[in-house]
Amino acid sequence: MAKNLFRIFRSFQSFVSLPFTKNQVAHPCASVAFRTTFDRTMVQALASFFSPKSRDFSLPNSSWGEEMIRLYEFYNNQCEGENHGGEWRRLPSYNRSLKYASGGVYLSKIIQSKARLFTRNIREPGAAFEYVVFVSKDEQRCVCVFQSGHLLEGPPGHVHGGAIATMIDTVTGSHASILSAPVMTANLNINYRSPIPLGNTVLVESCLDKREGRKLFISCKVTSTDGSKLHTEATALFLSINVSHLLRG
Ligand SMILES: CCCCCCCCCC(=O)SCCNC(=O)CCNC(=O)[C@H](O)C(C)(C)COP(=O)(O)OP(=O)(O)OC[C@H]1O[C@@H](n2cnc3c(N)ncnc32)[C@H](O)[C@@H]1OP(=O)(O)O
């Protein structure tokens, strides 16, 4: 049991402390001097597709529209390793959060073989959740560039409220995990202010409001990319947990 718990804990650790790729490419092409940011972006994307390692879904793919690419490059250019101050780190994103868990009966039945992070498992690129999350150097803020796909429709021509909630939980949850993994959402409070047109790219920004013992209070807002339109506001409470919490069933 102790060994299993250790493995599960390691998987959570690796989930939030992955070697942030910044602008490095773990690929032979990394030594190439890229002429433009676009060249580097495309080589990174290709490397991730053909690598035998897990695919990093937060790299550009052919479904990303102009605005998604523009904002990805805007924040990526401000990541450590660039000449722009290194204010942000990009968070890699995989389709399995507990790949290495081989824990107790509960986890081995449900998680081990088939479980996948649902935001990253719709096969058609661009059909649902396309997103990339950046975290600020002081870890007080996260910004996510999110492009909504046609499978996320709720009201005609607009994004489903549950899909918006999913993205808010994902961004605030990733943020809380960086600060204090492992965590679980205890409370999510959402105000929908204006609908998000389906297909639009929006910003989902989170901010750490306060920490009280095991509690992390995080606020979040979803806006148009120029910040002029507020779509959604939320507050979330995360509790850091002991991994044994997940074995209770
Ligand atoms: C790979 C990429 C991943 C991307 C990120 C995705 C993130 C997704 C995160 C999730 O969606 S997690 C899934 C949804 N959440 C759950 O299923 C959690 C279900 N609830 C629980 O398991 C437990 O209720 C919980 C862990 C949240 C708390 O149980 P605990 O036993 O650890 O805490 P406890 O009940 O003793 O409460 C501790 C403190 O928190 C407070 N608290 C607990 N739940 C609360 C609540 N809901 N609202 C307000 N306060 C709450 C509680 O009052 C108390 O305050 P005080 O210490 O001041 O007395």
Automatic annotation (TrEMBL):
GO terms for cellular component: mitochondrial inner membrane; mitochondrial intermembrane space; ruffle membrane. It is found in: Cell projection, Ruffle membrane; Cytoplasm; Mitochondrion inner membrane; Mitochondrion intermembrane space. GO terms for biological process: apoptotic process; fatty acid metabolic process. It is a peripheral membrane protein. It comes from the Eukaryota. Belongs to the THEM4/THEM5 thioesterase family. InterPro entries: HotDog_dom_sf, THEM4/THEM5_acyl-CoA_thioest, Thioestr_dom. Residues 157-228 form the Thioesterase domain. The keyword Zinc does not apply. This is Acyl-coenzyme A thioesterase THEM4. Its EC number is 3.1.2.2. Keywords: Apoptosis, Cell membrane, Cell projection, Cytoplasm, Fatty acid metabolism, Hydrolase, Lipid metabolism, Membrane, Mitochondrion, Mitochondrion inner membrane, Transit peptide. It catalyses: (5Z,8Z,11Z,14Z)-eicosatetraenoyl-CoA + H2O = (5Z,8Z,11Z,14Z)-eicosatetraenoate + CoA + H(+); tetradecanoyl-CoA + H2O = tetradecanoate + CoA + H(+); hexadecanoyl-CoA + H2O = hexadecanoate + CoA + H(+); decanoyl-CoA + H2O = decanoate + CoA + H(+). CDD domains: PaaI_thioesterase. One of its GO terms (molecular function) is hydrolase activity.
